[in-house]
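Sample entry (227 residues):
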Amino acid sequence: MAFNDDSFIREVNEELRSDRLRFVWRRFSRVIIAVAVLIVLGTAAYSAYRYWASNQASDTGDKFIAALALADQNKPDEALAALTAIEKNGHGDYPLLAQMRAATLLAQKGDKAGAIAAFSVIGKDSSAPAVIQDAARIRAGFLLVETGTYEQVSAEVEEMAVPSNSFRGSAREVLGLAAYKAGNFAKAREWFQAIADDAQSPRNIANRAQMMLDIITASGKAPVAKG
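Predicted structure, serialized as tokens:
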């Protein structure tokens, strides 16, 4: 008899569950269907966007390669026009790469002021990756060694000449060259010595720094400072 009672209870429970499910479905079926549809549409839209973005980035990549080819063919004006179009309408990381390449082309054309301004804009662009910002500032600094003052070079790169910055070797070299050009040989020696004392300085930078230290020592001008 107990067995029959258990079976009866199970049947009642199953019926109650069925009734509750039917009630929930009657009351919330539209909401459930709407949510399901939104999920499907959202997934489809995201997949479509990724496909579109991938195609757009691929197309921009082809245009970027074509612009580089123009530069290699010694057609700087055409290359600059193509790179400018990518900066304005490109997708993915290509607009930023186009900015960097365009700034380099300006320098190669002899427009040092334009190149410095372009690199400085990238260096101050908080939306750009830090490594790209730092690289742009280093490029601006090297150009300023030729055309600017030590103070202008320092404003661009000195905060990068710290142990925690991966570009510190380049920043110190730029500062050393700027100081040397300004006639401040004591300051130049300090920056080049900082490179020589840093065991993690890239070998090529360390070699150039040692060469400059030898030149300063041989000149007998350090620690005399001028200007």
